[in-house]
Amino acid sequence: MKATAKAHTNIALIKYWGKRNEELILPTNSSLSITLDRFYTETTVEFNEQLTSDSFYLNGEQASEKETLKVTKFLNLVRELSGDTRHATVSSTNHVPTAAGFASSASGYAALAAAASKASGLQLEGEELSKLARRGSGSACRSIYGGFVEWQKGTKDDGSDSYAVPILEQEAWDLSILSVMIESKQKKILSREGMKRTVETSPFYDGWLKATEEELQIAKKAIEKRDFELLGETLEKNAFKMHATTLGADPPFFYWQPATLEIIDYVQQLRSQGVLAYVTIDAGPNVKVICEPKDEQKVYQTLSEIDSVKEIFVCHPGPGISYL
Ligand code: PMV
């Protein structure tokens, strides 16, 4: 009747960018991520026959009607699966700094999927849990597992073969992921909206699809061989290509700001000095810099000298879902 789950955020090395089905959240391309140790969400779900509607508390405060509606929509999927029609109280704590620009939707929906399914008596694991989390937010399906994770896009119309699979466990390869925050006042184009506009209008989108399938295979090879240089080059190219598609959209848009480019420039300078560090960027201006643990200090030092850098969070590969 009551369950608590913990899920960590993840950062995509090969990006999910575009849906073939908006309702079921089915992607046009497969993607690959690392689950992070530092940022996570803890969620408790309790079903109760006395309740006449769902209620949602976020970081100790009652959430807005809009946020609560999203949770109810997700709980409806769980109620459909379990046959249990009761309403629930959901309490979530996000251990993702709000300033971090990190989407808490991945850890949020992964934790909600795990806690809600368990509280309703469903024994969902792996594949099934990943598919449920996917319905909340695409990237959430990857947060079910720790370490390196692939979201296989699947080919079926009903989404039954679109879920994440673990490809290398957390302890198998330690990397440093420096999440670099910049000052930002720009209004955000949400990933959902950005993807939709790009798929529908960008002539570069076909190029993205073709390249990303190849880059996914190269990244997987690089992970298998623990070839950091190959992985780094591939993930950086993939991120740049994703952002290039937005420039071709109508109306065009982009997520970068001057400070984004400044950080990219510093990382390229580090490489010219022989330090292997690479960037990736999601649907926002902040930059994640990936390097090997032996270079972490040097990279941290260099990035912290940039005026427009507000804060740097150092992350490493983290675990999958757990129940508390
Ligand atoms: O799962 P969403 O809707 O938050 O989309 C995530 C999109 C990117 O962060 C840009 C890429 C990814 O694969 O995480």
UniProtKB/TrEMBL annotation:
EC id: 4.1.1.33
Keywords tagged on the record: ATP-binding, Lipid biosynthesis, Lipid metabolism, Lyase, Nucleotide-binding
Keyword Lipid metabolism part of the UniProt annotation: yes
InterPro entries: GHMP_kinase_C_sf, Mev_decarb, Mev_diP_decarb, MVD-like_N, Mvd1_C, Ribosomal_Su5_D2-typ_SF, Ribsml_uS5_D2-typ_fold_subgr
Residues covered by the Diphosphomevalonate decarboxylase-like N-terminal domain: 7-164
Family of the protein in this entry: Belongs to the diphosphomevalonate decarboxylase family.
The keyword Cell cycle belongs to this UniProt entry's keyword annotation: no
Domain Mvd1 C-terminal per the UniProt entry, residue ranges: 180-306
GO molecular function terms noted in the UniProt entry: diphosphomevalonate decarboxylase activity
Origin species: Pallidibacillus pasinlerensis
Protein name (Swiss-Prot/TrEMBL): diphosphomevalonate decarboxylase
Organism classification: Bacteria, Bacillati, Bacillota, Bacilli, Bacillales
